[in-house]
Design a protein that fits this description.
This protein folds into two domains: about 10-225, Glycoside hydrolase/deacetylase (TIM Barrel, Alpha-Beta Barrel), CATH 3.20.20; about 235-265, no CATH class. It is about 30% helix and about 20% strand. It contains eight helices and 14 strands. The protein has helices at about 25-35, 60-65, 85-105, 120-125, 160-175, 190-195, 195-210, 220-230, and strands at about 1-5, 15-20, 40-45, 70, 110, 130-135, 155, 180-185, 215, 235, 240, 250-255, 255-260, 265. The strands form four sheets. Strands 2, 3, 4, 7, 8 and 9 form a six-stranded parallel sheet that branches. A three-stranded antiparallel sheet has the order 1-12-13. α2 (about 60-65) links the parallel β3 and β4 (about 70). The longest helix has 19 residues, at about 85-105. The protein binds zinc ion. Zinc ion binds near residues 20, 21 and 77.
């Protein structure tokens, strides 16, 4: 049986972190992520950087977030759904331009300020070239979104340890559940407010112990991989797998990982 439940290097699970607002506590959080090899996406408010000393600075931005993903969170963190469509678009495109200028990279992701949106927000995202939008609606499951424009996370970090433990249980005891993705969101300053940095340290340590089974990736890396997998072509007899994308894909064939390299056809025995 062919199943599309594998990640790069044949790994069976994916974990991604998503942190909003870009306050100074991001520095400590990234130190922890880097120690354990965890990857995060950081959604920044460009209009506050360089103006409000509670936020990270333009100077440190490219090096602080190196190895992670920088994504949009709007210029001024308004309730977008209360704004006219053109003003919503300005909040997104100007944020994207500023963050792309600062990083020198493409910025393609977004999270909704206050976790709210209107239909016009989704249109503005598409026009501004933002391909996913993270909500604050927790699914408490390991499934992918039906629509990346409304990407509902698994859980907030304060509730993440039970999900991490569940994923580790699945890896060890329930291999038929392979393929899940754990998506954790939050704000780094909450660890200061709640005095619980030990939570994220402990959870990252637990996850790192399973790095042979878990793919640690940014939000956009997971979206790109999933969209590539969706383009895999399988012959009617299930023996030929063609990968028309520029991304190497791994699938599960009779409980073993098989790599289908970018642009190639793999013929199964
Ligand atoms: Zn926010």
């Amino acid at each position: 049986m062919i199943r599309t439940n594998r990640y790069p290097d044949g790994k069976s699970y994916a974990v991604t972190m998503s942190y909003d607002d870009g306050l100074l506590a991001d520095r400590k959080l990234i130190e922890i992520f880097n120690t354990y090899g965890i990857k995060g996406t950081f959604h920044l408010i460009s209009g506050r950087i360089g103006k409000n000393p509670a936020y990270i600075t333009w100077d440190e931005l490219p090096t602080l977030y190196a190895g992670h993903e920088v994504a949009c969170h709007s210029v001024e963190h308004p309730h977008l759904e209360q704004m006219p469509a053109n003003a919503q678009y300005e909040q997104l495109i100007e944020d994207r331009k500023a963050l792309e200028a600062a990083t020198g990279k493409l910025v393609r992701g977004f999270s909704f300020p206050f976790g709210t949106w209107s239909a016009a927000t989704l249109d503005a995202m598409k026009t501004a070239g933002l391909e996913y939008g993270r909500t604050t609606n927790n699914t408490n499951n390991f499934l992918f979104p039906e629509n990346f424009l409304l990407w509902h996370p698994t859980c907030h970090h304060k509730d993440c340890e039970r999900h991490v433990d569940q994923m580790i249980y699945n890896i060890e005891k329930a291999p038929w559940r392979a393929g899940g993705m754990l998506y954790v969101w939050g704000h780094s300053y909450e660890f200061n407010n709640d005095n619980n940095w030990d939570l994220i340290e402990r959870v990252c340590g637990k996850l790192a112990n399973y790095k042979d089974s878990i793919w640690f990736a940014t939000n956009v890396e997971i979206m790109d991989y999933k969209k590539a997998v969706e383009q895999l072509k399988v012959s009617a007899d299930g023996k030929k797998l063609y990968n028309p994308t520029a991304t190497d894909i791994w699938v599960d064939v009779d409980d073993a990982p098989v790599k289908v390299p970018a642009g190639e056809t793999v013929v199964l025995a």
